Amino acid sequence: MSKEEQHDGQPSSDEWMADLARLVNAPGYKRWQSMVAATGGCGHPVHLAGQSMIVDAGTGEILHAYTTDAEPSGHLLVACGNRRASVCPACSQTYQADTFHLIRAGLSSGKGVPETVSAHPRTFVTLTAPSFGPVHAHRDCRACRPRKRDRLCEHGRLVGCHLRHAPQDELLGQPICPDCYDYTGAVLWQAHAGGLWHRFTLALRQELAGQAGMTRRAFAQHAKVSFAKVAEYQRRGLIHFHAIIRLDGPNGPTEPPPDWAGHHLLTQAIPPAVHQAAVTTPPSSLGRWTLTWGDQLDIRPILLDPSADGLSERAVASYIAKYATKGAEASGTIDHRLSCRALPDADG
């Protein structure tokens, strides 16, 4: 069989070229091309069908009418708008660029935010999940989890791992001992992570007010706390929250906070707020669980000078934009919908 013929049910190169020639020479090709270009190269455009009209409410006159019947394929192509790079690279790039500019504007200026916002206290904070048991990890030039080679857990498995895992090793993120790992706690924590973040924001406002020697209501008359966050999946399937926290005046970014509400107050208030935040699950057959943040907490100032001991505005905006387009594929999961279908009867 030559390469010009069909192979494994796929059209041959001659058939591809013939189809392409028919498409290019079709009467509606230029319109189809313009619709494809308008999607920005979307890999999974939405095909819309129907009609719309703009009618003068006073006279009932039809000012404009549109129907997809006139389109070459009978459909209007619209970009899917999916932000996940693993689903649609083109749309995720658009989303990433939009996110970058929005975050950058909130840190420096633009989109209605004045340049003076750069002088406001700002930090980049990473909040983590607690440990639910040791998992396999990639460590540069080091063993995964070195322990005494004869030390066993209560289930008879080694408590350590002396392998040097490659970055794409399928074992990464998997428990050292599946029976020791607290899967129930991990699932519950993930399910309530959003609520735990909310509790943290409340605790931070309370802590800021307390350290300033006033009530929350009184503090709100002097300063306002603004947040922007993104979740990053770890290989173990749990998320980190990366957040920008900024102190503004009582009316937002258009006015500065008072002098006493500076970087020191903000960075000193975050750790106790993290430790105070907790969510208690509703009663169930699993009991009631109190869920908190993990021990790892990273607080870094966002500075105008990138050479100083902190993060630049551009670096932070790029970081947030990057993780805004990542899905759960980094943890080894799939990024499409699962469906259950009955298999045909083998005897049928």
From TrEMBL:
Pfam families per UniProt: RepSA
InterPro entries listed in its UniProt record: RepSA
Record's protein name: Replication initiation protein
Native species: Nonomuraea jabiensis
